[in-house]
Structures are given as C-alpha cells and as structure tokens.
Amino acid sequence: MTNLHPAYLHIRDALPGDVDALAAIIRYAMPMDPQWDYRFPLRKQYPEDNYGYTRLMMKSFLEAQGVVVKVVTFPAPGLPEEDEVPAALAVWEVEPDKDKKYSLTPTGDKTARRDANFEHMAAFGSTTRAARETYFNSVYQSRQLHLRILATLPEFQRKGAGTALCRWGIERAKQHQVPVTLLSSPLGHALYSSLGFTDIATVTVQVKEEEEKLSIRVMAYPYEPVY
Fold first, then answer.
1. Chain-centre distance of CA 2, in angstroms?
2. Which domains does the chain have, with CATH numbers?
C-alpha cells in the first residue's frame, strides 16, 4: 500500500472482497456523468438491475487479465489502514489493444436488464471502440496505459482522490515508457487537462435520427523520453 499526498489518502490494489464497495462507488458517482444517464435512463425505476450489472462489471474487471483496479481509501475512526473502505476507484487496462469482454451488457436478451437504452449502449460502444482503435491502438498498440474508469463517491470528491489515482497511472506509464490514454466526458475534462493530458480529438455518440447526443474527448498524456 502506498501513501500519497495529501497524507490522509491511501492507494492500493482492489481485492475481490471490495466488489460491493466498488459497485457502490460506481452506483453513486456515475449518475453525475451524462454518459451514465444516456446509457441507463431507467436506472431509478430499476435500481436492482443497475446495481446488479454494475457489480458484475466490477467483478469482471477484478478477474480480467491485463486489468489493474486501484482504489483510494480514507481513514475511518477505529479502523486500521488495511480495513479502510474504498471511496474512489480507477480501472486501468495495461493491454488495451486486446479485445476484452466485460459484463456490462447482457448477451442478446434485452429483458436481461431493464435500466438500459440498448440503442444508446450500442452507439456508445461502437463510437468509443472506433475512437480507441483510430487514435490509440493503431498508433500505440499495446504500448499504452488506458484509463477506462475513474470514479469517486460524491462525499469524497474534491479531496484529491481522482488526482491521486491519475498520478499513480502517470507514474506507472513513465516507468514503462508508454503514454496514458483515455476517453473523457465533459465532467472529467478539467481534471485531466490540469494534470497534463492533451486533447487529440472529439467524437460524438448519437443514434441516427435522434437529437440527443454525447460529446467525448480523446485525450493522452504523452511519454516524453528524458535525455
């Protein structure tokens, strides 16, 4: 476990026993992001579906090869550091050009989860896959560290957790001499820009003949060799 600045933040690898805490972070943090409501507009009507598939997704990340899930914990009265509950998470893909399948979307059966707009999910998935292939995988192949998810519980936001998790990835990428890549919603763009990420492109998620759409920034933290 690594101590970060500020001193009250602790960062560690997520463990299998953290899966419920990870699902809770996503459940309460992601509704602030327009990408979440776009894909799961009926999450309030079917909270059990939204939570159940979110938990399944986080379990898939924890079990996947080439994926590192890091968490930030905050001190709790009477608890040793190893028992602190995660308050923020980052999902990092260290083999991002490999075609992985995570349990975010049920296979075929549209009755499997009732919280989702499946046309929006399909548009989001195809657009982000194309963006990653065009701007990241075709350029860097596996020589990149990709930030897939960054989320913090609302009551712990603006306390440095997201910054700490990003800096962990930046330092790891420097050690491996690779860039950090990510796709940002408007919600995270200011944070990433402040840390030195640069804009490469903007892509739009939109179902044909619909007015509703999403704007996603393609960003990277380039690796620059020191001579």
1. 21
2. 2-101+116-221 (3.40.630.30)
